[in-house]
Structure formats: C-alpha cells, structure tokens
Amino acid sequence: MKLNHLNLTVTDVGEAREFLETYIGLRCAATRGDSFAALSDDDGLFLTLMEGKKVEYPGTFHVGFAQESEEKVDEINQRLKDDGFEVKSPGRFHGAWTFYLDAPGGFTIEVLGADDPQFPVGG
Fold first, then answer.
1. Strands 96-103 and 91-93
2. Which residue(s) pair with 9 in the sheet?
3. What are the start-end ranges of the H helices in the chain?
C-alpha cells in the first residue's frame, strides 16, 4: 500500500499555500476556490490543504520537510528570519540538523537535513 496524500486543515488556505510554495518549494497542482489547494513536489509528496474555522493539532503534531543538506536548512531558516518570522536557529535533534516553526494556517513544520539513517533525505 502506498500513502497517496496527506490533508491538513488550516485556517487560511491561501496563506498556508503561499508559505509552503515560498519557503518549502511545493507547487500548487489544483485549487477549488479559497477553501482547497493541492500541493506537490518532485519526490511524490501530495499535500492537500482544506479550510477549517478552528484548527487544533496535538502539541507534538508536525509535518517534516527534509532538505538535502544542513546548509539548505540554515538557508531556509535565515530566509524566514529575514522575512520577519519568529523562528529559533537550527540545532541537532534526533540526529538531524533541524528547526520547527508555527506555519501560517495553524500547523507546525519541521525543516531538517538528516544525518541519521532513521531520517533518510532524498533516498
């Protein structure tokens, strides 16, 4: 069985979509008005966003976006800071160079460059 897609409920589909396109590099594959967007990448990820009035994910919930290098993690982190996002600097966590951010729309993302075989990047 293959995971086909992951759907996130977000408070603002357009804002979340723009963030994921700008900083993560996802591309919009389809939209339905302002309440739905489907995003994809070159590795087969298919992420859909649906609007919800109230979004509450558990404290440990997050969506991880692996990068090809620690330098790329640093680059994304600095772009976010330069653009006014409150984000901590990357650090070593679970064997990966990583940082977390509360993304627009009401969910948390992790950006990581993995060194640990548990978290293969691009493999």
1. antiparallel
2. 50
3. 13-19, 70-82
Beta carbons of 112 and 67 less than 8 angstroms apart:
yes
Task: For the chain, 123 residues long, give each residue's pLDDT as a single digit of tens.
Answer: 888 899 999 999 999 999 999 999 999 999 999 999 999 998 889 999 999 988 999 999 999 999 989 999 999 999 999 999 999 999 998 888 999 999 999 999 999 996 555 555 544
Residue 72's Cβ-count burial label (10 Å; 0-12, 13-18, 19+) is middle
Element (H, E) at 122: none
Q: CATH for 6-51+62-114?
A: 3.10.180.10
Locate the domains of the chain by residue range.
6-51+62-114
Q: 14-17: which pairs have CB atoms within 8 A and are 24 or more residues apart?
A: 15/104, 15/105, 16/49, 16/103, 16/104, 16/105, 16/107, 17/49
